Amino acid sequence: MKKEYSELDFKEHLEKEHKLSTLSTHIREIVYGGTDGIITTFAVVAGFSGAQAITSDSTLPILTVLLFGFANLFADGASMGLGNFLSVRADQDLYKREKDKERKEIKENTDMEKAETTHILMSRGFTQGEAAKMAEIYARNEGPWVDFMMREELGMPSPESENPFLTGLITFLAFILFGFIPLTPYVFTQNILSSHSFSYSILFTFVALLILGISRWKVTRQSISRSVGETVLLGSISAIIAYFVGTMFRQ
C-alpha cells in the first residue's frame, strides 16, 4: 500500500536533508568579500614592499602600511558592502518590473502565453500532449505560472527572498575579517620582527586564502582540490600582480 505523506513529513525531510546553514546561504558574499578583502589589503602591503618605501626611521614604513592598509580595509569594505546592497536592490527592482509585465501578459494575452508555455515544455523534452496539459494546469494557477515564465522564458531566477541589508553586511564583515589577515604581522610584530613583516604577511595571506578555500569546500562539498586550489591559485596570481606593480615604483 502506498504510503501517505503529511505536511509534517515534508517539513522534516526539508530540515534533515536540505537545511542550509548561514554559511551555506551566504557563501557567495563570504567568498566574494573575503577574497577581495585579502587581495586589496595585501596589494597595499605588497605595493609598499615592492616600492621599497624605507626611510632611516624604521617605524615609519610600518606605520605607513598600517595607515593605508586600514584606510583601504574600511573604505573598500564599506564600498563593497554598499555595492552588494545596491546590486541586490537593483536586481529585485528589475525582477519586479519584469514580473509585473509578465503577469499583465498572462491576463491580457492568455492564449499566446499558453502557447509559449507549451513550446517551452516541449523544448524540455515533454510531448505536445503532456506540454499542453501542463500549460492548462499552469493557466489555472497564476502565481506558479508567472514564476515559471520568469524562470524558463526570461531566464531570471527570483531574487525576492534575498535580504539586501544582510547580504551587504555579510560582504562587509567578510571583507574586514579576511582583509585584516595580511596586516596582522604589521600590527603584532612591528617591534620584534619588523624586517620580516612582509614575509609573514605573504604567509598569512596564503593561510587566509586557504581558509577561504576550505570554507568554500565545506559548503559545496565539491572537489577539495578544486575549491581550495582555485581560491589559492587565483588569489595568489592577484597578489603577485600587486607586488610587481609596486616594483614599478621602486626608488
UniProtKB/TrEMBL annotation:
Membrane-spanning residues: 30-54, 60-87, 165-188, 200-219, 231-249
Keywords: Membrane, Transmembrane, Transmembrane helix
Subcellular compartments: Endomembrane system
Superkingdom: Bacteria
GO molecular function terms attached to this record: manganese ion transmembrane transporter activity
Any single GO BP term: intracellular manganese ion homeostasis
Gene Ontology terms: cellular component: endomembrane system
PANTHER family with a match to the protein in the record: FE(2+)/MN(2+) TRANSPORTER PCL1 (PTHR31851)
Protein name stated in the entry: GMP synthase
Annotated organism of origin: Candidatus Roizmanbacteria bacterium RIFCSPHIGHO2_02_FULL_37_24
